[in-house]
Amino acid sequence: MNGYRDLCVALLGSGSVGSQVARLMLENGDELAARVGARLTLAGIAVRDIDAKRDAELPQELFTTDAERLVQGADIVIELMGGIEPARELILQSLKGGADVVTANKALIAAHGPELAEAAEQVGAQLSYEAAVAGAIPIIRPLVWSLAGDHVTRVMGIVNGSTNYILDRMDRFGDSAEDAMRVASELGFLEADPTLDVEGYDAAQKATIIASIAFHTNVPVESVHREGITTVTAEQIEAAKQAGYVIKLLAIAERLTAADGTEGVSARVYPALISREHPLAAVYGGKNAIFVEAESAGELMFYGAGAGGVETASAVLGDVVSAARRHVVGGPGIPGSKHAELPILPVGEITTAYQIMLEVRDRPGVLATIAGLLADRGVSASSVEQSISQQADGHARLVIGTHRAREADLAAVVDALRGSEVVQQVTSVLRLEGDA
Amino acid sequence: MNGYRDLCVALLGSGSVGSQVARLMLENGDELAARVGARLTLAGIAVRDIDAKRDAELPQELFTTDAERLVQGADIVIELMGGIEPARELILQSLKGGADVVTANKALIAAHGPELAEAAEQVGAQLSYEAAVAGAIPIIRPLVWSLAGDHVTRVMGIVNGSTNYILDRMDRFGDSAEDAMRVASELGFLEADPTLDVEGYDAAQKATIIASIAFHTNVPVESVHREGITTVTAEQIEAAKQAGYVIKLLAIAERLTAADGTEGVSARVYPALISREHPLAAVYGGKNAIFVEAESAGELMFYGAGAGGVETASAVLGDVVSAARRHVVGGPGIPGSKHAELPILPVGEITTAYQIMLEVRDRPGVLATIAGLLADRGVSASSVEQSISQQADGHARLVIGTHRAREADLAAVVDALRGSEVVQQVTSVLRLEGDA
Question: Cα angle at B52 between B50 and B54, to 5 degrees?
Fold first, then answer.
């Protein structure tokens, strides 16, 4: 369509991430083609068990068990099978065949990253794994590219949503460790065997990848000092809170100088105290965040959803588009610079909520009058607070919070209030953003 | 050196950002060459006034007033002059000559971005402007590349450090608007003419750039609805705080549907309330943050220093390395995959602080004994809190915070405490991270 060349994409795996990647590629085929400048054609989805119950929305004819055949001739291979083998072998075959590879396989990259990167470099193919660390949050690309002219000195990450959820429940809800783990299991934050998460193995794999990228050094996963959260008690959490700290499981990668003057790197995972004023302290529930310190850039933080099928699919597709663009113009331009040319809508069309502060006559019926003014324009109040006016006797101060409505309607409300004889003054109008 | 080809880099401007870019390129020449795979040779620095007092650390022979000649034959041109002309004309000349261009010029990109992007695309050159928005924080690259497979629905940014500093002083320190502005001026957050910042013009330019990138649509700067902070009063700030909100100057870019069903985009700047629990609320002082909502990725936030000479230089150099890599292998590999091969240092070498919770005999001399145990191993206490033991009569609970020390020394302290006859139990040992 539109004269776009076809790029053949092979997908290995159709689990929680793979099925989302397939769905998004199929649903957004035209738009992705416009952004890339070539059509990403999903040639097939390799799975272990062809008969397993799977997403009925995906065309069944795409499924195959012959992964080796699928990757032959592919321009881009997306590996979402997980595990070390046969993922590693299939990635090597794909690279040998000249395909770019996109993966989310943190265990594989942590254990065999250098070997795979070497294989990619030998053939001039691209190996990308943004999705292997911190789900949807861009961290690999910023570390590799945005900070390529800088020196990273330290990276501290909350990279395991399961343990962050548990520690957060203990901190903000006062749960015991057992109760927090039970709730986490019920909500799907923990697998049947929670060891990988609670003993810090998952975080250690991510620490390996982050440290290797940040410091241009091969950091083997065995070299990561690892402590999980099983020793964290409610008493420690409470003592931390009293002292103005919070306990977080941190993956830390750092440049440092040994006592004997040797310059080196350290990678470790352990539960640690951080100040409640630190940006990492405001990372709640299953969220992840990576706090980077670099010589020129100073402190940066990348925050978002660390896991989830569709969230991780976002990171996978970002890498797929990057890989695909390399085939298009001999080097990437900015995808989608062909403008979508959407119309610019005036501010009257936005949906927002208002907080209106007014001085009104302090007498019966005023609230009803004001509520009527709102209702006549399709706006309803979500909160009203009344207090004694600081400005004039016989007056009251009202702070009205509205529900979300069209700005044009909200502006009309303000005009009506200004013109109302029960309103002495509209002191302040502020919009409320962020779905608070 | 090492057989690297030379890439000729022309720098236009030697102000607060340009002088840092030049310094970093010269100081880190070898390392940048290893990362890029080619040597970035600074061919010259074009300035308006050759006699102006400038950074004496930079080789004076690099300076020239002939910018037009300097850009001829350059592989990469870095435009850090600011202003519309002659920056725009020089960028067009550079692109015509086949050079990649890196700029921090938000006013220029906001006003002429599409024209310049078109010119770059026509010759297959790269135009990058990460440094034009939010200083050191990677936001352009994540929006363009990491989210290239996603749909961005809304972006809300704190993108002007000056106004955030003022509003933050009013909120956390109770300053009046006048006092906050005075402090901001004294600290260099405001120019002599603060209009660009306080009236929201700077934020509006950034909103334009963000909206254009996020929605693949040309959003002219005139279409940005703009309100500054001059109407924000101490009374509003206090009322916001009482209600659990904070007032931030937000630049908002959003996909939305008009009342008549038209799909379009909106871009605006205004002071708005957000919940104090929102991630954007924890952005203090001169810091910036951009909160992105995308269909698959969900909520992401990018946080850091929004301005500053060396901070912005980090973003410039990231773009320079990206541009340079395109010349090296016919497409970018991961820079620096040739491992730096730094040694991995064991956890005993890290420097950290401990919080140690212990049960001790409640009798005179115990604190002195414990302090001696620390001092003998080169560790000093930064805080000691004593309370009645919950565990045993005649005992006290101590919570000791140490100053930062080598982990090996801290571990030795814990061992000594465990072996001490005044210590009944070491209940908890936690590391304290983040320079709290």
Answer: 105
Enumerate the CATH 3.40.50.720 domain ranges in chain A, comma separated.
5-136+310-329
- Quick: pLDDT tens for A31-44: 999 889 899 999 99
Instruction: Name the active-site residue from B106, B206, B248, B287.
Output: B206
Domain B140-306: CATH architecture, name and number where available: 2-Layer Sandwich (3.30)
Q: Residues spanned by CATH 3.30.360.10 within chain A?
A: 140-306
Distance CA A416, CA A400 (A): 14
H or E stretch covering B225: strand B225-226
Q: Whole-prediction pTM value?
A: 0.93
The Cα–Cα gap between B292 and B139 comes to: 10
User: What is the per-residue DSSP string for B51-95?
Assistant: TS---TTS-GGGEES-HHHHHTT-SEEEE---SSTTHHHHHHHHH
Among chain B residues, CA nearest to A434: B274
Q: In this complex, is the C-beta atom of A168 within 8 Å of any C-beta atom belonging to chain B?
A: no
| Active-site residue flag, A206 | yes
Distance from CA of A117 to the nearest CA of B (A): 8
Produce one character per residue of A31-45: b if its CB has 16 or more CB atoms within 10 Å, e if not.
Answer: ebbbbbbbbbbbbbb
CB atoms within 10 A of CB A278: 22
Radius of gyration of chain B (CA): 27
CATH tag, B350-433: 3.30.70.260
Q: What would the pLDDT profile of A330-358 be if each residue is shown by its tens digit?
A: 444 455 555 678 889 999 999 999 999 99
CATH architecture of the region A5-136+310-329 = 3-Layer(aba) Sandwich (3.40)
Distance CA B166, CA B171 (A): 9
Chain B contacts in chain A segment 194-223 (CB below 8 A): 215-220, 223
Give residue A285's region: left, alpha or beta (phi > 0; psi -120 to 50).
left
CB A125 within 8 A of CB A95: yes
d(CA A126, CA B330): 12
Q: Which residue has the tokens 């929680």?
A: A16
Beta pairing, strands B76-79 & B63-64: unpaired
